[in-house]
Amino acid sequence: SDVFFETGGPYPSIVGILKGNSLRNEYKKRGRRESLFAWNIRNYLGDRGINQQIRRTAETEPDKFFYLNNGITAVCKDYVLEGNTLKIQKFQIINGAQTVASIAKAHEDAAVEVLFRLIKTRNVSTESGINRQIIEANNTQNAIKLSDFRSNDPIQRWLEKSFESLGANELVGKIVYQPKRTGRRGAGRVVKL
Predict the structure, then answer these.
(1) Please, where are the H alpha helices in the chain?
(2) In the predicted model, what is the mean pLDDT of residues 75-104?
């Protein structure tokens, strides 16, 4: 079953785990797809690339889906949590359209669980205010480069330590190896991945 806990603050929120089948059933309701994602900045982008990987994880490693997926974030005008039943007014998924649609395209599996966050904002406006801020913040991130995935490889850590142990040289000074992208520079000449 779905599991939730509630937070307080100016925008009460529910954080929990949803069964993938619950999301699939909601997505597959007649006329529901478009209304679920009306405030989302993108609709489903098709069964390719990362979406194909999301679907594949749901089908081949459903027990790992919770750990390998960022989950979904939604806003609403109001909700009532009674035990493990959640009743929501003006529910909008603002981040997670790819996750929900990919789960709906996958074979049904009760083991698929999804991280879920629901924020009660008390209004439906997206032109300004908290809804707009939440939508922007949840759909903006720094671009990930292929080299970022290599930055923790053993060879990169070895190179970083090796350069660290060299010390300064009269000809070039101190050389620092930075395998990870960062806003700060090392002390000396920087060699990047």
Answers:
(1) 20-27, 32-36, 49-60, 65-68, 97-105, 129-138, 146-150, 154-166
(2) 90
Among 63, 85, 90, 77, smallest CA distance to 16 is for 85
Q: How far is CA 32 from the centre of its chain?
A: 22
pLDDT at 186 over 70: no
Helix (H) or strand (E) holding 189: strand 189-192
Backbone φ, ψ for residue 5 (5° rounding): -135, 155
Amino acid, res. 67: Y
- Inform me whether the pLDDT recorded for 34 exceeds 90: no
Strand partners, 14: 6, 118
pLDDT for residue 7 is more than 80:
yes
Parallel, antiparallel or unpaired: strands 113-120 and 72-76? parallel
- Residue 13: what pLDDT? 95
Whether the CB-CB separation of 60 and 108 falls below 8 Å is answered with no
Tokens of 132: 């707009």
Instruction: Name the residue type at position 143.
Output: A
Largest Cα–Cα separation, the chain: 73
Percent of the chain with pLDDT over 70: 96
Reported pTM? 0.77
For residues 129-153, b (16+ Cβ closer than 10 Å) or e, as one string?
ebbeebbeebeeeeeeeeeeeebee
The upper half-sphere exposure of residue 7, i.e. CA atoms within 13 Å in the direction of its Cβ, equals: 11
